[in-house]
Amino acid sequence: MVKKVKSPAVELFWRWLFTALLLLVCVIVLVPMLNLLALSLSNPARVPEVRGLTVFPKGFSLINYRVLAANPLFVRSFLNSVFITVVGTALNLLVTSMAAFALTRPKLPFRRFFMVLIIIVMILEPALVTEYLVIKKIGLMNSLWAVILYKTVNVYYLIILMRYFEEIPPSLIDAAQVDGASNMTVLRKIVMPLAKPALATLGLFYGVFHWNEYFRASIYLTDPMKYPLQLILRQFVVLDDTASLIGSGTLFSYDEAARLSYDALQASTIIVAILPVLIVYPLILKYYARGVMEGGVKE
Amino acid sequence: MKKHSIVLWLMVAMLVTGVALAGAQPKVRLVLKDLDTDPNAAQFIQLIEKGMAAAGTPVKIEIVKVPSGNYAEKISLMIMSGDIPDIIYFQGGDDKIAMQNLLEDLRPYVAKSKYIKNVLDPHSKTRLESYPYLVWVAPPRVRAPVIRKDWFDTLPSAKAVATNPTVDTYYALFKDLVQKKGAKFGISITGATNGVEELDSIFDGAFGITSTWMKGADGQWVYCRVTPNEKQKLEFYAKLYKEGLLDPEYLTKKWDTKEQVFYEGKAGIIAGVAPGSIDVYANKMMKTQNTTLVPLPPPAGKAQGLGPFVDVIKESRGFAIPVTSKVKDAAFAVLDFMWSPAGLKIAKLGIPGLHYIEEPNRYVLTDKYAEWYNGWFGDSFNGFVPDKPLSRPIMTEAAVEAGKLAVKYMMPDKTFLIPEQYIANWDAMTNLYKEYNADIVTGKKPISAFDEFVQKWYSAGGTELTKYAQTKLK
Amino acid sequence: MVALAKKKEWSLLLLLAPALLYFLIYHFIPISGMVMAFQDYRIFGKSPFVGFKHFRILFASPAFLQVLRNTLIISFMKIVLFFPLPIIFALMLNEVRSSILRKFIQSTTYLPHFLSWVVIAGIWIAFLSPANGGLNQLREMFNLAPKDYMTDKGAIRWVLFASETWRSLGWDSIIYLAALASISPSLYESADLDGAGALQKMRYITLPELLPTMVTVFILNMGFFLNAGFDQVFNMMNDSVISVVDILDTYVYRIGLLNMQYSFSTAASLFKGVIGLVLILAAHQGSRKITGKGLW
Description:
The complex is a heterotrimer.
Chain A lengths: L8 H33 L21 H7 L2 H33 L6 H13 L4 H10 L6 H6 L5 H12 L3 H9 L4 H12 L1 H17 L2 H6 L8 H10 L4 H4 L1 H5 L10 H36 L1
Helix pairs in contact in A: 1-15, 2-15, 3-7, 3-10, 3-12, 8-9, 10-15, 12-15
Chain B lengths: L1 H21 L4 E5 L9 H14 L5 E4 L7 H10 L6 E4 L3 H6 L7 H6 L3 H4 L2 H9 L11 E7 H6 L1 H8 L3 H15 L3 E3 L3 H4 L2 H7 L9 E3 L5 E3 L4 H15 L12 H9 L3 E8 L1 H14 L3 E3 L10 E5 L7 E3 L7 H11 L2 H9 L6 E4 L2 E4 L31 H13 E3 L10 H19 L7 H24 L2
Parallel strand pairs in B: 1-2, 1-3, 5-8, 10-14
Antiparallel strand pairs in B: 3-11, 4-8, 4-9, 6-7, 12-13
Helix pairs in contact in B: 2-17, 9-10, 15-18, 19-20
Chain C lengths: L1 H5 L5 H22 L19 H8 L1 H20 L2 H11 L4 H12 L6 H12 L5 H8 L14 H26 L3 H9 L4 H25 L7 H7 L5 H4 L2 H11 L3 H30 L5
Helix pairs in contact in C: 3-15, 5-9, 6-9, 7-12, 9-11, 11-15, 14-15
């Protein structure tokens, strides 16, 4: 690990300067997020004391999270997001592995033709309007499936998985097939277990994608009770539309809730949206970035 | 060809309704802004269903949920998605859908109607004639500025505005509100949703802006937002902003936050649609500050009037029935019922036992009545003759006064529908205006930038549109 | 064995079928539908053929040209100006000796990559808020007047650039870290023996070794030049700055889905698609030529 270099003071200086700069980057990344966390956890009476660079809550209160947990629209959107993410990711992995397996078998008929199709998918993007009209025509409008199915197969991930499958010794597969196993069985019992790290990585990426998706949901879903969390977040935080969460009825009658200050509530919705990502983040680091990190340390 | 298909559709619709009536009641799906989140909606709909059954036209009504956000956009998306309700309340965006031939011509329905045709005001009839896709029963939508009464009574400058309204007396009043009453700023407006429209309602007239298209001295029609009058007006707005008399955060204000600063005494004046919104403001002000409101007349200058200009081409909001509906007659029956005496009683008085209490010889309006929105099916009170006297007037005095001002000072518009081939340009031109407007008012650009805007506006399609205007307007 | 391999296995098509069905619905049918760019699309009834009408209007429209200019400027900032930053980041990180520090820096800076643009926009809007945002608190410390970055036309593109950097700086450095890790230590050792200084090692060993990676990354990014990041712009734009940040994809959305000008919007999409196709093919060829590896 230690390079055989005499470390003159100059070199040491640079090294410390770099470290300091990199830590500064970390501060810039963390402070805005910690600030929102502090805001969301602060005692409502002391919220005005929380400034933009405050990273520790002033007092402590879970009131914002309680308000969110009691809000049917918010709870529902959270569950919708979980559903879309879980079902969507399972479907992604299944369909992508099936396709990758088929495409890596030399016995697949029209293999070259399919490869060309996949390249076309990669380089030609359909117009938003025409995609929209197709979804409408096949009756997926206002259905969670229109959102779940979007990007069922990410072509780049498909190609990564194909590369991975190609590494599996063909003899393993052939042996199983001689024993009379069907393609699906071979895929399930032999190929997928061997490709576990790759599948875990892709699963995490697909999962994060589904969790973060909001745009297709915003154009395909018309019933607010079907909205995913990110869309509620966009309404409430980005577009600053208080009525989206509080309800215009409450605002209209000018009740207690309408007199709240919303900054802290907005902050807590952001934190709730980040939380699941934080929970799987160690896994992401483990599967995807570990190799790179360790490789980097070894020099 | 078109007439034919309408007749055909009518026959099919009648057949379908006939069959449906023989079997079950027709189900009418209704989309109406904010109704889906109103706590009293279910009871409201139940009352309507009961009333319609009693009137011999039973229907089942389903409220369609709308995602929150820009209502016009969400409705466009909903309709395009193929999920088309039977009665659609529009608040903008309907013209583009009408261009796709998606909306029913409502004139035959109105002609056959029992009640609606009798409650339509002349301006509504004119609009229905030229744009037959929306029906709406409401007084002209004009905004009036209001100030809280306790402040009005103790400020000489407020009285000066009431007796001698000019741009200068208004300016003096804004200053006094901040200096003597501790308001943070003179006036707040819903800049996030409407730009400076609410300021325009008060000041357009005084600066000589009296309709969307105006005839210049040379006899040519010109778009009002590119005239020298507009420039002078924006210069005045920029002064208000710079001196802190206009809410410095107006660009992020929506209706709820605008009202909030008013009730909290941070804003001295706000403008709202008379009489409907003014009534709401007056009630809430009573609740929070225990004082009522005084509406103010618009300043006199090159002209005098309250905006927005009263459209003579089409309704800016209202109900439409899509051509795809299978229950068009039932859908229209709902609208017609709402303007029958029985329907009006529900719409205007609210839920019995909650918003009013029925006594043997009168209806007592409760404290909760202030929370009832009586404009769901239009703000008009035409045809509303309760069968028993009311314990108190429905509207606050302030609202009635504001309504009178609105009628007195409204400005009939001169405009036309933007034809389809100019819509993409119009989007760009509107954005251009919004942007320069915000920049000039907030001082990011000097007033001299206005000339640059005018030039850009013309080259972004304004030249063509202005040419087109000469052919459309007389 | 050879004969066996040649025999096609038709049942494999069953495995491919779900993916093909997906491509059909979300790609091929919509792509074929783009013919409506040459029609006046009507929801009901026939859509008449109008040839290049929409394209003519498109290219004559100053708004569209502005949108195109914005797209190119924003892409330039996010691809060309941003390009050296992850490299510098990786080079600096490579000099950090403590493995705990390294892990901390990496874990922290990779995180924003996994947040949605909705969340990032929320974070940044709060951070840049003129009323109480962190950046304006800093300005206050230096006695500067608060500034509303989100609605400032001069600042907003830099906000886009900064937030893109905030999100991608760490993540995009991974590929360079990997490349740095694969440089043989013996190269440095022999340089040390020759008495080379740090700068010389950088110039004659590190940079040449990184060059293929740099070229690949740069060329691949060029292929997506017309994208400019819809999700970011869509969530960070507002009426005050629309003229300087409105890009092709936001324009297509607004005109198409909100203003219901289907054919016109599709024409704009088609234009973008064709240019994008050329760019991607060029990137593919360029990458193959220089590094021997293409996009597929």
